[in-house]
Amino acid sequence: MIKYISRISILLLALLCTTIQPSHAQRSEFGAFGGVSFYLGDLNPTTLFAQPKIAGGFLYRYNLSPRWALKADFVFSKISGSDALTNDNYARNLSFESPLTEFSVEAELNFFKLYNETRKNRFTPYIYAGITLFSFNPKAELNGTLYELQSLGTEGQGLEGGPGKQYSLTSVAIPFGIGIKVTMGRHFSLGAEWGMRYTFTDYLDDVGGIYFDNELLREQRGDIVADLADRSTPMHQAGEQRGNTTTTDLYSFAGLTFTVKFGNEDKTCDLKKPRKSLH
């Protein structure tokens, strides 16, 4: 499913780019995003902006009209969580960090009609939603060394009696959020936005199911895997709950955008109005 969504997104962007004609308005914007990211899941169930990490990337926006726009963005960041810092489940004593890379295609709906002209409205709040393809790779530290957790199978993935095969490090999400943007003259735009990504994986933090038999895990995969799987004292019994199996994880970006407009000199971005020639 992921590869088909990726292909459809790329096809839509390619089709969008081919529709941009020199006689169109300054519908196209290219720019950058900078801000912070955080995660919500088993190791941080409710605290917004806990353990924030720096996020940055690039975006392209195509203004269909003064009310509607399509946006594509490519963002890099990290997320992290810790029972000791953001969860009441101190006894479990798990923690993680993960790099995060996403590609999203979103539709934006402006609350007010947005123009480039000085005498017309140049400010609007907006909402957005779309589809995201992202990659992650949860890691945890043990005795000063950082280990990639997915390949270790800390919940017995790949072992007899375990939950099955290892989870994928690539998944899809539904992005949704709010923002504010302001046009600055004919060529620039400044904005601020905050959005959540509702994912379809419960393993951003490598925690999603029940405890596997730790002695069996130690016997078949070694001390490091066993110690990373259960860091509590006393240790849990096989079959006890390790994570919340009824929910999936979320992550979030919040920050500022700056874009440069390019195209011809029709300042309205309104499909219903006559287009002005470049000459």
Q: How many E strands?
A: 10
Number of helices: 4
Multimer state: single chain
Largest sheet: 8 strands, antiparallel, barrel
Instruction: Please identify the structural class as seen in this structure.
Output: mainly beta
Taken as a percent bin, the fraction of beta residues is: 35-45%
Question: What Rg is obtained from the alpha carbons, in whole angstroms?
Answer: 23 Å
Percent helix:
10-25%
Strand order of the largest sheet: 1-2-3-4-5-8-9-10
Instruction: Report the principal-axis shape.
Output: elongated
What low-confidence regions span 5 or more consecutive residues with pLDDT below 50? 12-24, 265-279
Q: How do the SSEs run, as a string of H and E?
A: HEEEHEEEEEEHHE
| Mean pLDDT metric | 87
First-to-last CA distance: 47 Å
Question: Top keywords for this entry?
Answer:
mainly beta; 8-stranded antiparallel β-barrel; two-stranded antiparallel sheet; 4 helices; elongated; disordered C terminus
